[in-house]
Design a protein that fits this description.
With 107 residues, this protein is mainly α. The chain contains 5 helices and no strands. The protein has a single domain, classed as Orthogonal Bundle (Cytochrome Bc1 Complex, Chain D, domain 2). About 7% of the residues have low confidence. This is Cytochrome c domain-containing protein.
């Protein structure tokens, strides 16, 4: 019985430590989540999964969409009003998410 209790406490502590490592959910996540999913797993066909992408890559890509270096009108419109701190929050959020396996497509 003591072993089960110790194991349960250990798992609970590990889960709390992992949850503490996640950055806070960005206030501006909603528009991104409509296509890319709240946890970075795409909700729309053709939208890339962002979960687990490198932080520096996401940060740079978001800045390039906002600034027009990457010419994707939908992304520029979605990101246009965001400042550097908000872009950083989004990049941190998505880079900290764990990618999940995709369900197999049915023909």
């Amino acid at each position: 019985m003591r072993f089960v209790l110790i194991a349960a406490l250990g798992l609970t502590s590990a889960q709390l430590a992992f949850a503490a490592d996640l950055p806070p959910k960005p206030v501006r996540l909603g528009l991104c989540a409509a296509c890319h999913g709240e946890t970075g797993m795409a909700q729309m066909p053709g939208a890339p999964n962002l979960a687990g992408q490198r932080l520096d890559y996401l940060r740079k890509a978001l800045q390039e969409y906002r600034d027009g270096t990457r010419n994707v009108p939908l992304m520029r419109t979605a990101i246009g009003p965001l400042n550097d701190a908000e872009l950083d929050q989004l990049a941190r959020w998505y880079s900290a998410q764990t990618p999940q396996p995709q369900a197999a497509a049915h023909p």
